[in-house]
Amino acid sequence: MATCIVYFTHQGNTKAAAEVLAKQTKADLIELTEKVSYKGIIGFLRGGFRAATGALAKLDESLLKKISGYDTVVAASPVWAGKTTPAFNAVIANTALKGKKVFAVTVQADPSHAGHEDRVTTIKEKLKDVGAEFGGGFSISGAGPGKGVLPLDALEKQIADIKLV
């Protein structure tokens, strides 16, 4: 059963978490990129607004096709304004996920993981709408905006309990 981890990262925390999880599970890594800039204060506000409104990123069609070739997909996203990013939203909405098992991993600065259950409920509903099986939802703590990337050992400790079964 082929597994991929698709991720969008802005600051590097989600990328680091995806790399640790890929090493642990032997999954392939696929980075999502957007043409929209999220740099600076305007970018920060733009990202929060786009996430809060459920916007979809314009992703490369060949990348979406590649993702649909996997049996199991782990979609990883930073949490912006309490929501998943437009790139994450686009993967769920625009990839052929029918009949596939999909896990969601969110990385947020808030160590209490506030809003995790609401995000998981929303993700489950979106996956059900596209005919995918929800495998599970996990929340990881990352460093806050502008504070770099959480140390690798801290990420490894959080990810050690994630099982993709």
Give an overview in words:
- Helices cover 39% and strands 22% of the residues.
- With 165 residues, the protein is of the alpha/beta class.
- Helix 1 (13-25) packs across helix 6 (152-159).
- It starts with a strand and ends in a 6-residue tail after the last helix.
- The relative contact order is 0.20.
- The model has no long low-confidence stretch (mean pLDDT 92).
Number of strand elements: 6
Q: Segments where pLDDT lies below 50 for 5+ residues?
A: none
Q: For the residues shown, what is the average pLDDT? A: 92
- Described by the principal axes of the CA atoms, the overall outline is globular
Largest sheet: 6 strands, mixed
End-to-end distance: 11 Å
Overall radius of gyration: 14 Å
Strand proportion, as a percent range, falls in 15-25%
The computed structural class is alpha/beta
| H/E element sequence | EHEHHEEHEHEH
The count of helical stretches stands at: 6
Helix coverage percent: 25-40%
What attributes does this structure have?
165 residues, alpha/beta, 6-stranded mixed β-sheet, 6 helices, 39% helix
Task: Outline the secondary-structure elements.
Blueprint: E1 3-7, H1 13-25, E2 28-31, H2 40-52, H3 61-68, E3 72-80, E4 83-84, H4 86-94, E5 101-108, H5 116-129, E6 133-141, H6 152-159
Parallel strand pairs: 1-2, 1-3, 3-5, 5-6
Antiparallel strand pairs: 3-4
